[in-house]
Amino acid sequence: MKLGFIFFVLTTVSSVLASLDRPFFVGLGLLKSRIPRFITSLDHPYVKENQHAIESLSDPVQFFCYPESQLRALLPPVPDDIFKKLSLDDHKWDHTVEILSGFLDCPLAVEELEELQVKVSSASPSKYSQTAIKTFTLFTRLFKEAIQLKTLAWMDPSPEFDSHDATSALHKYLTDQNLNLPSVTTLILGPNAEFFVAAAPKLQKISSAPGFAWSWSGFNHFYRYENGPQRRLVRSLDSAKQLENVDLGFSFSKDSTAELVKAAPGVKTLSLEDFCDEGRQYGEAGRENFKAILSELAKLESLTVLSLPHVNYLGIGSFPEPGFRCGNAYFGIEGSKYGRSELLQEIQATEEAADIILQALPQLTKLCIRECADVKAGKIVRWPWTGRLRDYVLQSWPRLDGTDPEDDGKEDLDGPVLYTWEEDEEWFSTSKKHSIDEL
């Protein structure tokens, strides 16, 4: 009798709460949300801005998945791009199963999906739960049914560190299912996901996934072994016959550059992270290594846009690393002057590097070495500092006004930009000693 009375009271209270202001009590955790996880995972402004009203709907799934639903009249019009992008990036397998299941049960969502971003762990089979294994069939269904999918970003936040046999159980399953991505034109991949390349016959652009995975590989030499993730990804490009744009965020040597040129001879736009795969080199050795890599890139006859990192990562800069000194060296007035002097030397090295590059690749129309410049007839048209070197330096390293607690005073607005007027004369006057493009 008592149990029945308690159940009656709880049921009544729940009904009353729901009738008063359901979204409010959902926010307090007193009621379960009606909005399915696959809707909230869309991370779309419409869902965030109308969450209160969506929570009040009797059936949010019907509202989103069926345009003819009468519920559509209760809220502002649903944007056409509501299902354009889906992100699976919380690394939890049970959430992934829930999101994929809900998404696949919504015909409109699958039909309109154009961009899929996945960040899930694909460890060895022994580390999988039954929940994780269930995603295998769900991903297979999604890849088959999402016929408008154009961009796939796939990164394993915890890749296996085996340089010779890093293919995960999930990857193997998808491959065994004859994975096919006929509409995908862009891939953004982390380590061990190179098998997606062969599955995308219309692939035009490939990028390495940003973040920790590839940068970690840069600190582990086995990642650059003959059959390591970097080399495997480069070699996989051989199957991408329509590939035009390559953006790879890891180090290259002359040999790995040659491998890239062989695998992707038709590339038009190329972005590389580093030229120091075999260890950082400077001085004459750095320049020779740099020129050797350029001799390989010169074989890319269709290449018109080349993007490279900071000049010091090319091995020909004045400093071992960008900002290699302790952060304290850049504090205060003296630190700002040091930063400006360092920037000027980097600019000078950048222009030197550009001259070397354009001798090897005169067909370029755009060159980026951290900063970008258009190229015409093998010559730089204009750098961001061209004609405004002094202003560019002060824009990057403004004079201190003394308002920051770490400032050691207020810088004289009429004083030299560098340490002395003589240095200013050398760098900024028309008869300056240092050669920097100011025309």
From TrEMBL:
Signal sequence residues: 1-18
Q: What is this protein called?
A: Uncharacterized protein
Would the keyword Signal be found if you checked this record's keyword annotation? yes
Q: Which InterPro entries match?
A: LRR_dom_sf (IPR032675)
Q: Which domain of life is it from?
A: Eukaryota
Alphabetical UniProt keywords = Signal
